[in-house]
Specification:
The chain is an alpha/beta fold and about 170 residues long. It folds into 2 domains: about 80 residues, Transcription elongation factor, GreA/GreB, N-terminal domain (Helix Hairpins); about 80 residues, Transcription elongation factor, GreA/GreB, C-terminal domain (Chitinase A, domain 3, Roll). It is built from 4 helices and 7 strands, in the order H-E-H-H-E-E-E-E-H-E-E. The chain has a 5-stranded mixed sheet with strand order 5-4-3-7-6. Strands 1-2 form a two-stranded parallel ribbon. Helix 2 runs antiparallel to helix 3.
Length: about 170
């Protein structure tokens, strides 16, 4: 049998790096550490305890623990994959006048004069109530490459909204 001369392409060659702030990267590592050192051992103990109760086919505790174990293992795999593809963006070192990943953007709604501030972060870091806007959000996309004083328009369910950029910081 002839050996295939085409080499396998690794996942990393197919997928670009995923930008993440240092804070977001540390949060992923903390969650992974907790899952591996606290959650996983606890569910393994729960499975062992449920096994001691006898017949596994009708043992609700056993099936619940196995389901939880599956979710924990899936989350561990997900986080490990994201960490392996992470490109840490050290936002305090960025020296730019325009909006890029990691920027904290202060802006005003041109219609209501309401001032809002968001940091543009990776999708997994997003927490809009706490001012963390995912890079994939239409508003974040509209901000990219803009400068202080620029007015952007964003299509929203309520119609076109206009925002003026007041301040851009990298912290």
């Amino acid at each position: 049998m002839r050996e295939n001369s085409v080499s396998m392409i690794s996942l990393c060659e197919l997928v670009d790096k995923i930008p993440v702030t240092l804070r977001g990267f540390n949060k992923m590592q903390d969650e992974l550490r907790r899952l591996k050192t606290v959650e996983r051992p606890a569910v393994i103990a729960a499975i062992a305890e449920a096994r001691e109760l006898g017949d596994l086919s009708e043992n609700a505790e056993y099936h619940a623990a196995k389901d939880k174990q599956g979710m924990i293992e899936a989350r561990i795999n997900d986080i490990e994959a994201k960490i392996s593809l992470a490109e840490i963006v050290d936002t305090p070192t960025i020296k730019a006048d325009d909006v890029r990943f990691g920027a904290t953007v202060k802006f005003v709604d041109c219609e209501t004069d309401k001032v809002t501030c968001y940091q543009i972060v990776g999708s997994d870091e997003a927490d809009i109530p706490n001012g963390l806007l995912p890079i994939t959000a239409p508003l974040a996309i509209a901000f990219i490459s803009k400068r202080v004083g620029d007015v952007i328009e964003v299509k929203t369910p309520g119609g076109i909204k206009s925002y003026e950029i007041l301040e851009i910081k990298y912290e």
